[in-house]
Amino acid sequence: MAAFISIEGTDGSGKTTLMKALKSVLQDKPVLFTREPGGTDFGNATRDILLHGQKIDPISEVYLFAATRRQHVVEIIKPALHKNVSVISDRFLDSSIAYQGAGRGVGEKLVEDINRSAVEGLEPDLTIFLDIEPQKELDRVHNIRTDEVNRLDNEALDFYERVKGGYDRIIEKTPNRFLVIDASQTEELIQRQALSAIMNLI
Ligand code: TYD
Q1: Which of 34, 37, 52, 58 has the fewest CB atoms lying closer than 10 Å?
Q2: pTM for the whole thing?
Q3: Closest atom, ligand 1, to C-alpha of 65
Q4: What strands lie across the sheet with 178-182, from one edge to the other?
Q5: How many angstroms is it from 139 CA to the middle of ligand 1?
Q6: Going from the N-terminus, what domains does the chain have, and what CATH number goes with each?
C-alpha cells in the first residue's frame, strides 16, 4: 500500500543530504519525491515570497504556507496516493507548527486550526525527524565558532530553540508517527535508519 512519509528537521540538520540519498536509492520504486514550500507551480511561485520576500506578518505567513500546502495536497499528494504511489515530502504541516507556531510565536493551536482545511485530515504515516541541538545547527548553518556568536546569532539561536521545542512537543503528542534520528551521526548511519523505516512501509 502507498505510504505518505514526511521528512522534518531544522535548518542545518542534514535533511537535504538525506533527501538526495533517498532519491537515488529509491529511484526504481513507485515513490514520488516532493517538498514544501514548493511541490506545485503555485508552491514554487510562493516559495520565493516565503523564503526571500519582504518581512510579512507571522499569521499572514501561516496562511501563505497553508495555501501552498492545500495546493500540494490536492494537486500532488492525494492523487499520487490514490494511484498507489508513495509520497516522500521534504517538510509538511509539522514545519508550520514548529516554525510559525512555536518559532514565530503564532501558537501551535492557531497554526493547526488554520491548516485544518489545507490538509483535509491527511497525516503522514511516518515522519522522520532529524534531531540536532540548536547550537550545533547554528554552527552548521553559519559555519562559525561558538565563541564568536554575535547578537544576530543569539537571536537565531533563540528562534531555533523555540522551533526545536515545537518539534519536541509534536513528537511527545504523536510518538508513534515519528522516527527520530540523531542527526549528529554519520550520513551513512542516518540514511540506513531512514531507509529501513521507509522500506517497512512501501
Ligand atoms: P528550504 O530552503 O527548503 O530549506 P530546508 O532545507 O531547511 O527545508 O527552506 C525551507 C524553510 O522554510 C525552512 O527554514 C523552514 C521554513 N518553513 C516554515 O517556516 N514553515 C513551513 O510550513 C515550511 C514548509 C517551511
Answers
A1: 52
A2: 0.93
A3: 22
A4: 31-35, 86-90, 4-9, 126-131, 178-182
A5: 18
A6: 4-199 (3.40.50.300)
